[in-house]
Amino acid sequence: MNIEYVDLENIGCHRHRKIDFSDLTVVYGENRTGKSTLVYALFFALFGSHLHKSLKTADLCRIGEQFGTASVGFREGKTHGKLSRPTTGIPLLQVRTEADPAWNVVSADDPVEFRKYIPWSADIASLTSFFREGELIYFLQDIPKYDKTLLQNMIEMDDVLIVRSRFNKCLKMAREEKKALHKAQPNHPVSSITLSDQQKLIADLEKELEAVNAEHRNLSEYQDKPVDPAVFRLLKQQVEENRKALDTAAAKRQKLPPVQELETRRIELEQQPADTETITARKDELQRRYGNQEHKRSEVKTRIEQLGRLGKQPDCYACGQPVSRDRLATLTAKLNEELKGIDHGIRTLEQEISNVRVQEQHIKAQKKELDVVDRQLVEARRLEEMARTLELQGRKAEDELNRYTALNQMSEDAQKRIRRLQELGNQKAGLEKRLIDQKAALKLQETALKQREQTKAELKQAERNVVVCKTALDAIEYAVQSVSRGLMEGVRDSIHEWASRFTFLQQFDIEITARQLSPIIQARGYQYKLNQMSKSERIFLYLMLKLSMGDALSHLGAFILDDPADGLDLKRKQMMARLLTEISRKRQIIVTTNDTVFADQFPAGARVEL
Amino acid sequence: MISHEKLVDLFCRRLEELSVENGLNVQERERIQTMFVQAMKNPFMDERRIYPGLIGKEPVDR
User: Fold this and answer.
1) Band of the pLDDT at A182, cuts 50, 70, 90?
2) CA–CA separation, B62 and A439 (whole Å)
3) Is the dihedral of CA A95, A97, A101, A102 positive or negative?
4) Which residues pair with A17 in a beta bridge?
5) Do B10 and A169 touch (CB under 8 A)?
6) A509: part of which helix (H) or strand (E)?
């Protein structure tokens, strides 16, 4: 690209300014005349951003104005273009060719078409086609930051390095997952018995158990019962206890009269008249009559006594008439007679009452006896019932005991059968237990095997994931290294070419390290560090590196330098001017300066005054 | 990044070679490629998003 002109409207201190450029243009102006603004405006017009990354594009606008516009005219082979970019708004790119002399607008919405004419990124252009003194501060740093090579630092490979770091973390994650799965694998040893062996063992056990069951069934058909000494002992004890209880009941029973006798006696007692009520009524009647007789006797006695007293007195104390002694005697005799009769009646009654009382006592005694007979009868019957039951139980127990005794003396064959049955029972139980254990072990082994297979599959997948992540990282590493290496080689080759032109640096033997774009600067057998060089030497070295990187990466075809001679002495200024003039044969040079001495070192036609 | 296209191109070429060497299938190779391109485009795409995409746990937007 050859930049033909720049046209500024309300940019920086320029209200309206158009500057034409040749292959070598020296823009001279005093301080605050807009030299750096011109460089920034050129960059902005081409790439739409500020060369100084910490500044905004709006900062380019003239103070007090809403917006400004930077336009640049360029030529690329036979194509002419003009790109007009306002600080706010859409850029306008127009191109024309010799074949089509009319200006054609290239849509800003079509980045592919746009990049046909402006193919460089702002970053690459900033690195390889623009020079600012401020960049030297960074260049002074000897050690690359953040484990990046100097070249990576300069060409800003941050994005891909970050991506590489993220892919590296992915690989770590995959490896950790794999490690975790390794740890999660069941670590108990695998049984030496294989699954099929175990299944065979179970089948054998089942077969054996079936044989034992069959024999057991056959022997069970004989229905021989084994003699259990404990049962035998128990039965014997039961018989003895039964006998004792029976004896006790019999002894008790013997103390009582026979039931028949008791029943007869009971019938007799029940048949005897026992009209208690009649006797009681009779007794009451007799006592009432006895009372009446007693009363009558008392009255008669009282009258006799009255008659006696009356006989002692001459007159009746009631009517006052004289008392007849005879009459009194008659009456007294009559009353005495009556008294005798009453006494007789009383004696009779007393006799009767006594009889009734005897009868009453007799009935009571009868009742008491009946109760006793009843109780004895109940007890006798209970004892008889108990005796019967005990006898029955005793017989049964004796029968059982006899059977057991007989069993004890059974045939040798039967005993053998029973013993065999017992053995078979034990064998069966043992086999069943072993079978259950084996089946459980088989199930456990199957589960473990399944789990092992699953873990194996997961582990396989994890290993695959590691391979995938490793492949991705290797590919990125390769791409990064290739880019770096390609660039390094390009830069190294270019340095050799440019070094012949930078005669000022000829006293140094400058090489580039294999892995980093770090110059090894040697002179007179001594290896210098960057910050051991003088400022002028660093400026020349940096300029050379920029040109070399431009060759290796790409560049605008123009090299724009903002006051490169600042701080140089006359000799170095002359050298710089000569160098830039020589470079202008290969690339377009636009250089700004406020140094008249430096500006005077260039051909007169190259100078533009602001 | 200054040489994005060149980088992606180099990456893809090397990925093809490595895929053959490591016996990766087409899906795995495409997953890696897609994730790399996406990661380069999207600065917020960190390893927690890249990893599931790489191993095929999450579907990858192509």
Assistant:
1) confident
2) 53
3) negative
4) A8
5) no
6) strand A509-512
CA distance A83 to A71: 5
| φ, ψ at A131 (rounded to 5°) | -125, 125
- Choosing among B3, B32, B44, which should be mutated to test the A contact, i.e. which has the most A CBs within 10 A? B3
Could you give the percent of chain A with pLDDT greater than 70? 89
Place of tokens 């809403």: A66
Nearest-CA residue of chain A relative to B15?
A: A475
The minimal CB distance from A167 to the residues B3, B6, B50 is found for B50
- Interchain CB distance below 8 Å, A170 and B15: no
Give A223 or A432, the one with higher predicted confidence. A432
Digit-coded pLDDT (tens) for B6-33: 788 889 999 999 999 999 999 999 999 9
Cα A156 to Cα A24: distance, rounded to the nearest angstrom: 29
Q: Do B14 and A465 touch (CB under 8 A)?
A: no
Report whether pLDDT(A487) > 80. Answer: no
Confidence at residue B1, expressed as pLDDT on a 0 to 100 scale: 45
Tell me if B50 and A553 make a contact (CB, 8 A cut-off). no
Decide: A49 and A122 in contact? Cβ < 8 Å.
yes
How distant, in Å, are the alpha carbons of A137, A417, A491 from that of A102?
47, 125, 40
A-chain CB neighbours of B22 within 8 Å are 467, 470-471
The SS3 assignment for A226 reads: coil
Count, residues in chain B: 62
Give pTM, 2 decimals.
0.53
Structure tokens at A487: 């660039």
List, for residues A448-460, the tens digit of each pLDDT value: 888 888 888 899 9
Task: Judge: A170–B50 Cβ closer than 8 Å, yes or no.
Answer: yes
- How far is residue A348's CA from residue A293's CA, in Å, rounded to a whole number? 11
Concatenating the DSSP letter of every residue in A78-127 gives TEEEEEEEESSS--EEEEEESS--S-EEEPTT-HHHHHHHS-S-HHHHHH
pLDDT tens column, A504-561: 666 666 666 655 556 666 666 677 766 677 778 878 888 888 888 888 878 899 999 9
Q: Are A30 and A594 in contact (CB under 8 A)?
A: yes
Q: Cα(A356)–Cα(A226) distance, rounded to whole angstroms?
A: 77
Window 11-40 of B: residues touching A by CB (8 A cutoff) are: 11-12, 14-15, 18-19, 22-24, 28, 31-32, 35-36, 39-40
**Optimal mutation site among B1, B2, B28, B36, interface A, most CBs of chain A within 10 A:** B2
d(CA A388, CA A385) in angstroms, rounded, equals 5
pLDDT computed for residue A406 by the predictor: 75
Query: What is the DSSP-derived secondary structure letter of residue B3?
Result: T
Query: In A185-324, where does DSSP find H-type helix?
Result: 195-220, 229-255, 259-271, 276-312
- Alpha-carbon dihedral A287, A291, A292, A296, rounded to 10 degrees: 150
ipTM: 0.95
Contacts for A112 with CB less than 8 Å, ≥ 6 apart:
none
